[in-house]
């Protein structure tokens, strides 16, 4: 049953509101407070699904209550109660985070519709947070080694900003994971994360893929097509293996970053784009720059923040945690109970040379789960995890 708090210093109006909400098909549990100070104390102690709050009150007015409540419990929707002379203030409270306002004396239908809408909005916000947590767990980096702790701290600091990020590291280390985590923790998380594998797209098609094309721009361009930058508008574009991008495409990406504009292949019309760019590479871009294969000005545009993802051999202490994580995940995918790995099996796996990094470890764990015994033993590792 939704729990509602009514904060109103006029006893007659407070009783009317409480009576209406309490009798609304017995849907709501209603508390009351006679002034703003009493109201904020209740909000600190109790979990409410909605607050109805008068604007003009002694001790602490409605605007002060709203601002104080948003600091301690920002998810609670507020509906402000305004007298005739408070309408401008009521509208301003919506800029401060209020859901809506109702005027005195309250109209029954308007009151109940506003309450229902506010509660529906609260449910959506809570569900969205739950789903985002679930998604974030899918992209969470497993490990507590010093190298991973540094990366986690950087993500927490960098994600809420629009700073461009360059992620470096060998293949299979989890660069894509870092990109997803950066997006999920950013203010752009409700917009798309568009991934582009620059190494997988032929050089003659990369510009069309990134910036789109107009009909007739080339032989197979039978209709207009939006590119990845347009698709990622208001969101994030992830340029994976950016070191494999052609110099021609690099020049266009540089312009997009400088001017926040792109033009489709075959068109001279500019299109405004608002995207955050995250790039990743397994190459030494400094070496590529010296060899004339990568633009230095683009590098400096992309590498505002540098995140280096270490090879698995550099974080062997994380291997037991990764084995446990993959064991549970694979068991969940297959509908089985997670298999336990013996201490000797884990120790042996920690000693391996993981040239394929996290990706290789995941494959080996899956192989051992399928082929090993009830508990994966040292002999199972020797038998089935051999290089």
UniProtKB/TrEMBL annotation:
GO biological process terms on file: phosphorelay signal transduction system; regulation of DNA-templated transcription
GO MF term set: ATP binding
Sequence ranges assigned to domain AAA+ ATPase in this UniProt record: 161-304
Pfam families noted in UniProt: AAA_lid_14, Response_reg, Sigma54_activat
Metal-binding as UniProt keyword: no
Record keyword Nucleotide-binding present: yes
Location of the Response regulatory domain: 2-115
Keywords (A to Z) from UniProt: ATP-binding, Nucleotide-binding, Phosphoprotein
Identification of the protein by name: Sigma-54 dependent transcriptional regulator
Organism of origin: Abyssalbus ytuae
The organism's taxonomic lineage, starting at the top: Bacteria, Pseudomonadati, Bacteroidota, Flavobacteriia, Flavobacteriales
């Amino acid at each position: 049953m939704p729990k509602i708090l009514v904060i109103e210093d006029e006893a007659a109006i407070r009783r009317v509101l409480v009576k209406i909400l309490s009798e609304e098909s017995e849907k709501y549990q209603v508390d009351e407070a006679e002034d703003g100070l009493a109201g904020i104390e209740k909000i600190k102690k109790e979990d409410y699904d909605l607050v109805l709050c008068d604007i003009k009150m002694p001790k602490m007015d409605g605007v002060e209550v709203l601002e104080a409540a948003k600091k301690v419990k920002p998810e609670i929707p507020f509906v402000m109660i305004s007298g005739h002379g408070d309408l401008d203030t009521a509208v301003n409270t919506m800029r401060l985070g209020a859901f809506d306002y109702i005027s005195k004396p309250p109209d029954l239908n308007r009151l109940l519709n506003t309450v229902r809408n506010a509660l529906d909005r609260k449910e959506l916000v809570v569900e969205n947070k739950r789903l985002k947590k679930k998604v974030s767990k899918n992209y969470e980096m497993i490990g507590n080694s010093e190298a991973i702790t540094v990366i986690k701290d950087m993500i927490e600091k960098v994600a809420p900003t629009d700073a461009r990020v360059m992620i470096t590291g060998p293949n299979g280390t989890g660069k894509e994971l870092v990109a997803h985590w950066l997006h999920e923790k950013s203010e752009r998380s409700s917009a798309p994360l568009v991934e582009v594998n620059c190494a997988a797209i032929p050089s003659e098609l990369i510009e069309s893929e990134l910036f789109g094309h107009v009909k007739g721009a080339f032989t197979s361009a039978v209709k207009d097509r939006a590119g990845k930058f347009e698709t990622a508008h208001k969101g994030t574009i992830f340029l994976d293996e950016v070191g494999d991008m052609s110099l021609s495409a690099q020049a266009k990406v540089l312009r997009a970053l400088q001017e926040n504009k792109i033009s489709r292949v075959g068109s001279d019309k500019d299109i405004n784009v608002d995207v955050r760019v995250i790039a990743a590479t397994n190459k030494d871009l400094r070496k590529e720059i010296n060899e004339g294969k990568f633009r230095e000005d683009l590098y400096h545009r992309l590498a505002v923040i540098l995140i280096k993802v270490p090879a698995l051999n550099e974080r062997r202490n994380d291997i037991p945690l990764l084995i446990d994580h993959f064991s549970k995940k694979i068991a969940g995918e297959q509908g089985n109970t997670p298999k336990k790995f013996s201490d000797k099996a884990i120790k042996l796996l920690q000693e391996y040379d993981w040239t394929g990094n996290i990706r290789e470890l995941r494959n080996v764990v899956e192989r051992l789960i399928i082929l090993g015994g009830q508990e994966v033993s040292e002999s199972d590792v020797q038998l089935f995890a051999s290089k």
